[in-house]
């Protein structure tokens, strides 16, 4: 499997530690090139968890996290992840809560 689309899930859990399960699945997956996780109510805690595990994924090229609840705090974790990843070519963040304060963390990246 090269593309995993888990958009608009039926669960709507507010607990962000739930994303540990996704992170562990993505960690060493060598087949996935694109992950789409739209509308998961992902916030900065969830972004922290996902990016922690994604650091060990060396095949992922596209990450779609649009239509979540990512704010400037989540951008800090994404910025750190983007500085270490070598394979990610595109990240989609449309429809999040990234305001002016979060844009400072996007300084070198073209989203």
Task: Characterise this structure.
With 111 residues, the chain is α/β, with parallel strands linked by helices. Helix content is 33%, strand content 11%. Strands 1-2-3-4 form a four-stranded parallel β-sheet, with no helix packed on it. Helix 2 (44-54) packs parallel to helix 3. The longest helix is centred in the last third of the chain and has 13 residues, at 72-84. The radius of gyration is 13 Å and the shape is globular. The mean pLDDT is 86.
Which sheet architecture does the biggest sheet show? 4 strands, parallel
* Number of DSSP E strands: 4
The helix content, as a percent range, equals: 25-40%
Indicate the low-confidence ranges by residue numbers. none
Q: Class by helix and strand content?
A: alpha/beta
Beta content comes to 5-15%
Helix segment tally: 4
Layout: helices, strands, pairs:
Layout: E1 3-5, H1 19-27, E2 34-36, H2 44-54, E3 62-64, H3 72-84, E4 90-92, H4 100-103
Parallel strand pairs: 1-2, 2-3, 3-4
How is this structure best summarized?
The chain has a single domain, classed as Alpha-Beta Horseshoe (Leucine-rich repeat, LRR (right-handed beta-alpha superhelix)). The chain is built from four helices and four strands. It has helices at 19-27, 44-54, 72-84, 100-103; strands spanning 3-5, 34-36, 62-64, 90-92.
